[in-house]
Structures are given as structure tokens and as C-alpha cells.
Amino acid sequence: TDKKDILALIKKAETTHELTKDEIVALLIDTEYEAEFFAAADRVRRMYVGDEVHLRGLIEFSNTCKQNCLYCGLRRDNKKVNRYRLGPETILDFATKAKSYGYRTVVLQSGEDEWFDVAAMVDIIKKIKELGLAITLSVGEKPREVYQAYRDAGADRYLLRIETTDKALYEKLDPGMSWDNRVKCLQDIKELGFELGTGSLVGIPGQTVESLADDVLFFKSMDADMIGVGPFIPNPDTPLAKEAGGTFELSTKVMAMTRLLLPDINIPATTAMESLNPQGRVLALQRGANVVMPNVTEGEYRQLYLLYPGKICINDTPAHCRSCITGKIQGIGRKVAETHGFRVKRA
Ligand code: SAM
Ligand code: SF4
Ligand code: FES
Q1: Is residue 151 domain-resident?
Q2: What is the pLDDT along the chain (347 residues), one digit of tens a residue?
């Protein structure tokens, strides 16, 4: 592909928001016009979702997990993890504090921990909704009836990354899990009226750039409302300890491509990006992102929710993160949104 072709592809992506798989691959492997590519994603971000950045307060309420994903520090076979789960009162307390920091959404994230049965989750969801906050859940695969109960209790959004659209690779890295079931979960979540969030891990061993192109086309075919993309960061206490991991550059390229092809959705500047690059979230906000998810988990729990080494903010307080991230956002001429930040469909 010569220079003219790459610039024409960037223009096509920016103006039509449609590319073929081969065209996506050509842009993902190009290294010469990255600046032009990222600038186009930034323009599309500004045109469709504006300069406001939505902050979602993240509560990591349990690091206990029945699954065994090879890449993840919380996998059940990792005996080095001190497992914890927060009680409902503590979760509610952290949500109340999140509200006091001005966050309009809380994200409840955990391993797949069955101690939190449907009744427990429904109770927590209802109490948080009374605070006037939007709720995003990120608690893994559940039967449709369970998603229905969460939705009926008032949960607004659900995050479940597909991780990779390469089914064979997915089933190798997530032993005992089925790729088809994950897609079924995403369909159920969408049909039940949640805002649907999914996304990929960039740089898992065995992943190709073609499969990353498929990931972006998959996001579009699912009409996802939120896409979180981040680099895979090898964890020394997992079977993938010795693998190379994803790069900051490639993960932001996949993220920018997502902005170009799904122009009106919400896209976070992910924690894993900043864990690889000290300017990672600010750069991501300038390459298509419009959301940040500051941690509101308190005390020792932050250190214990260790998916990968080098995770940012593990020794900081929620109040510190709030002022830190506000400073970063304002430092690039953007502003913190005061709305709940639902997707406004424009595409
Ligand atoms: N258990 C739920 C699930 O898997 O959907 C939610 C929590 S899980 C820790 C959230 C995300 O962490 C996963 O979707 C995965 O993409 C990401 N993750 C896990 N291990 C990681 C690693 N080593 N590097 C980067 N991201 C990782
Ligand atoms: Fe459990 Fe999620 Fe980690 Fe997989 S990625 S081991 S489901 S916490
Ligand atoms: Fe946590 Fe900057 S956001 S220290």
C-alpha cells in the first residue's frame, strides 16, 4: 500500500465509518501515517461525542473467581492471591463516596464470584440506584434470567469483553469457557436493554492483526455502546508469565480504529494503557477515547485486585485519583462531564 492509499483509507474511515477487513489491516500495520490516523480518530471523537470526558467510578468488589483465564492474575489456580470480597455495606459506602466525588456512574467489577448470588446483587443494585447513580456491571457470564434480574433491579450497562473474536484462541486462553456462550451473553445483554460494553485484549499470544480487524468488525456488528480495548500485560503468577504482551501503540491503534468505525459510542482510556505508558490515558483521550474509569476502591483491596503487574493507582486514594484525573483532563483542554453519559446515537 503506498502513501496515497493509506491517506485515502484514513479519509474513507473518517467520512464513511466503513472499512473492509483488508483495509482495517492495512491501517493497523501502517507505521508511517500513525499521526494522521490518530488525528482522524480525534476529530471523529470531537464531532460525535464532543470534548466532555465521562468519569465512571470503579469499585473492584471481589477478587474471587471461579474461572481460570490464562492471562488473568485473579484466575482460580493463582494461589498467591489473597482473596477478598467486600460486603454489601462496604460496596454501598464506596458508591456513596463515588457520588460525593461527583461521579455519576459506578462500575461494579469482580471475578466470577458465586457468593454474590442474584438476591445479593439485586439488593446492592437497588440501593445504589437510590443514590441516583447509573450502574455498570462487569461480573462475567450469567444465565439470561440473571441478567434480566439485574436489569429489572435497575442496572444500566454491562461490560463483558469478547477478549478476542478468534474462537479457537479464546477457548485456549479461557479454559472451560465457550466462545459461543460469550456471544450469547452479549446478545442477551443487548436484548435486555442494557448499554452493551465489550472489547478486546491486544497482544495475547497467538493473536494476529487480521483477528484484531475481525474484533473491530465484531464490535460494529453487535452495535456495542461501549468498547474497552487494552494491552495484555503478562502476569508473573500466570501461565502466560513469559509471553511478550501487547504494546501501548497497537492497543491505541485498535481503539482509534474503533472510534473511526463506531463514531458515537463511549470509549474508555483504559487503566492498562496507562500502566504501560505514564501518559497513556491522556494520549488515549487524544486518539479517540472519551471516558475514564478512576478507581474508587479503598484501602488494601486495590493492591489485591491485581490482574497484571504495574497497575496504576494501587497506592493512591480515591480523592487523589479524582483530582489527578481532573487535572489531566483539563490539562488537554477537555472538561469533565456532569451528565450520566449514556450513548447518544448519532450514527
Ligand atoms: N471477571 C469479569 C470478566 O472477566 O468479564 C470482569 C473482571 S476481569 C478482571 C476484566 C478484564 O480484565 C477482562 O475482560 C480482561 O480483558 C482484563 N484482563 C485480565 N487479565 C489481564 C491482563 N493480564 N492484562 C490486561 N488485561 C487483563
Ligand atoms: Fe476471572 Fe474475569 Fe480474570 Fe477470567 S478475566 S480469571 S473471569 S476475573
Ligand atoms: Fe489514580 Fe492519577 S488517577 S493517581
Answers
A1: yes
A2: 677 799 999 999 999 999 999 999 999 999 999 999 999 999 999 999 999 999 999 999 999 999 999 999 999 999 999 999 999 999 999 999 999 999 999 999 999 999 999 999 999 999 999 999 999 999 999 999 999 999 999 999 999 999 999 999 999 999 999 999 999 999 999 999 999 999 999 999 999 999 999 999 999 999 999 999 999 999 999 999 999 999 999 999 999 999 999 999 999 999 999 999 999 999 999 999 999 999 999 999 999 999 999 999 999 999 999 999 999 999 999 999 999 999 999 86
Please name which ligand lies nearest the alpha carbon of 278: 3
H or E, element range at 96 = helix 88-100
ipTM: 0.99
Is residue 11 in a domain? yes
Specify the residue with its C-alpha closest to ligand 3, atom 3.
321
Q: Please say whether the beta carbons of 309 and 233 come within 8 A.
A: yes
- Residue 292 covered by a domain: yes
Based on the structure, what is the number of domains in the chain? Answer: 1
DSSP secondary structure string for all residues of 245-263: ---HHHHHHHHHHHHHHST
User: How many angstroms separate the alpha carbon of residue 73 from the centre of ligand 2?
Assistant: 8
C-alpha span between 267 and 248 (Å, rounded): 16
- In which domain, by residue range, is 219 found? 3-333
Looking up residue 257, the CATH number of its domain turns out to be 3.20.20.70
Minimum CA distance residue for ligand 1 atom 4: 140
Q: Is residue 343 part of a domain?
A: no
Chain mean position to CA 165: 16
